[in-house]
Write a structure and sequence with these properties.
129 residues; five-stranded mixed β-barrel; globular; 56% strand; 0% helix; single chain; six-stranded antiparallel beta sheet; mainly beta
Amino acid sequence: MLVQTELMPPSETEQVMVRVHTPVGSAVAVWRGEPHDAAGQHHIEWTIGEDIRWGLNIRPALLAEPGVREEAGQVVLRGRLQLAEDGAALLELGDSQVLFDVGSPPPPDDTWVEIGIEADRVELYPYQI
């Protein structure tokens, strides 16, 4: 996903945090590239350090359209969720996909969902095309 990032003020955790502006919204997440490259335009891969569990950190979406936002210290990703045979799930987030590990209870397949994850558990890895 091609995004614009801006460096956030230093945090207590010493992690480099950025505000990521995507075509479908923005939120604050952990930057996993070189700190001096944190601000700018990047292709990124989302990495989530938490399993999704239906009714705990994932719920049905009220809107059937992709989105990214902040809510109560969390990054909320909204998209269409597809379950894979290997126990993982893919969230279609605009023109990209985010891979999740699925915990118990599992979410329903092929549905619009919102996934809320603490901002310090959402990491952005830049890559070159």
